[in-house]
Design the sequence.
């Protein structure tokens, strides 16, 4: 078993090499259990082998602007990718790949929602691979369930300075508690982070 610190150095060097010749990277989500995914201003998602640094596939998406976040859906064996971008779109892409391997190009694609303004982050639920959240500059926190045949997102809340403030604040950061997935943290166009209990949300405004 190699020294963990040495492994991290080797990994960072590999990542530097593999992204140095790519377009401007907007998303670089790392996971030891799945291929390295990058999203950039060329609106494609690229999959890399984290050990060899070789690109496995380049997947076309329905985005028209810089991709900010991309991740494979847990337990999908690399066949489903979620992404959001500066065009405000939240996109589900079926790659047609097994385990992140194959020629790429992408299969069926679907726009699940379009935020008003840029969509900055998605967050997966650690205990449910079919559910996730999205946020954007429109201040909206939306919940999705991939088991829903209509794929219709649910407006959970809007991010505001206070409950009496009519002006929405942009959301740039979104996180889910790893052990209490009903707790969601939002941060953005104000000086503090807010934590919500999604069990009490769903009223939209």
Sequence:
């Amino acid at each position: 078993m190699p020294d963990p610190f040495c492994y991290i150095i080797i990994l960072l060097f590999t990542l530097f090499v593999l992204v140095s010749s790519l377009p401007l990277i907007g998303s670089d989500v790392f996971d030891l259990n799945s291929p390295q995914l990058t999203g950039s201003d060329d609106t494609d998602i690229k999959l890399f082998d984290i050990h060899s640094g070789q690109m496995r596939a380049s997947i076309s998406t329905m985005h028209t602007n810089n991709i900010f976040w991309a991740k494979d859906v847990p337990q999908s064996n690399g066949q489903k990718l979620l992404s959001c971008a500066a065009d405000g779109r939240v996109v589900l892409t079926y790659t047609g790949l097994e385990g992140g391997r194959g020629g790429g190009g992408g299969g069926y694609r679907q726009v699940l929602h379009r935020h008003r303004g840029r969509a900055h982050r998605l967050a997966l639920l650690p205990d449910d691979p079919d559910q996730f959240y999205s946020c954007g500059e429109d201040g909206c926190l939306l919940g999705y369930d991939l088991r829903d045949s209509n794929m219709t997102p649910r407006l959970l809340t809007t991010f505001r300075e206070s409950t009496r403030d009519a002006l929405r604040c942009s959301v740039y950061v979104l996180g889910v508690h790893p052990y209490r997935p009903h707790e969601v943290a939002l941060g953005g166009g104000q000086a503090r982070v807010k934590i919500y209990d999604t069990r009490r949300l769903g009223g939209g405004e």
In short: The chain has a mean pLDDT of 78. Residues 4-19 form the longest helix (16 residues). The two ends are 52 Å apart (CA to CA). The CA atoms of residues 62 and 109 lie 7 Å apart.
